[in-house]
Structure formats: structure tokens, C-alpha cells
Amino acid sequence: MQSATVKSLETFANPAGKRDYTIRMTVPEFTCLCPKTGQPDFATLEIEYIPDVLCVELKSLKLYIWSYRDQGAFHEAVTNKILDDLVTCLQPRYLRITARFNVRGGIYTNIVAEYRQPGWQAPEPVQLP
Among this protein's residues, is 32 annotated catalytic? Predict the structure, then answer.
């Protein structure tokens, strides 16, 4: 599987780098091609990350995601490739991508892939009464 280059992902400085906070993005129009049949596969991508020094610029992310439209890729491979490219570009504290593929052959496929920066610990969630 060929891939868009990490160079096409642009970043900007995290405006609150001393704090753990979560950025959540939903990409409802991801498409790639089935490597067996050449037919289009459609998915909704949910990207969640806790930035460290950098954040991803959204227009570049959109163009990067669009670059997969003409590429054949298994669901598992493309989900992990996107995770790897985002981690390489951002070096986040934490990143999770969930790819919810539309039905194909009567089967819905969901792929979840995660990255944790070495030594990073998730903060305890706040429980309010």
C-alpha cells in the first residue's frame, strides 16, 4: 500500500503544552479502495489525541485523508498507517484512531489502534457528585 507522506501533515505549536487535554476529530467521509475488488470502502474515522508539543492543522489533515481515495488498502493496514503517520508527525502523549467501516458483504468492521508516549500516564478522571 502506498501512502500519503507525513510531510503533507502540517502542525502548529500546542497552545497549552503544560496541560493534558484531548482533541477529538470525526472524519465522516474517509474512503479507500478494496485491494481485492477495487470497489470503494467507506468509513468514519474518530481521531482522539492528547498533544505534547504539536497539534495537527485541520486542512492538511483533510487533504492527507483524501489522499487515500484512490489507494487499495485493507482496513487494518490503512488504520494503522494513519496512526503511524500521525504519531510520526505529532509525537503526541496519546493517540487513538477508531475506523468504523461501512458494511461490506454483510460485515461491519471497526478497527481501533492506539499509541502511548513512553512514560506517559493518563490522568485520573474527575468524578463529580
Answer: no
**Catalytic residue, candidates 32, 41, 55, 85:** 41
Match 461490506 to its residue by C-alpha cell: 104
CB within 8 Å of 94: residues ≥ 6 apart: 49, 50, 114, 115, 116, 117, 120, 122
From first to last of its 129 residues, what are the pLDDT tens digits of the chain? 444 455 589 999 999 999 999 999 999 999 999 999 999 999 999 999 999 999 999 999 999 999 999 999 999 999 999 999 999 999 999 999 999 999 988 999 999 999 999 999 988 889 999
Q: Is 41 a catalytic residue?
A: yes
Q: In a 3-state reduction of DSSP, which class is residue 16? A: coil
Q: Which of 20, 32, 34, 55 is catalytic?
A: 34
What the chain holds in terms of domains, given with CATH numbers, is 6-116 (3.30.1130.10)
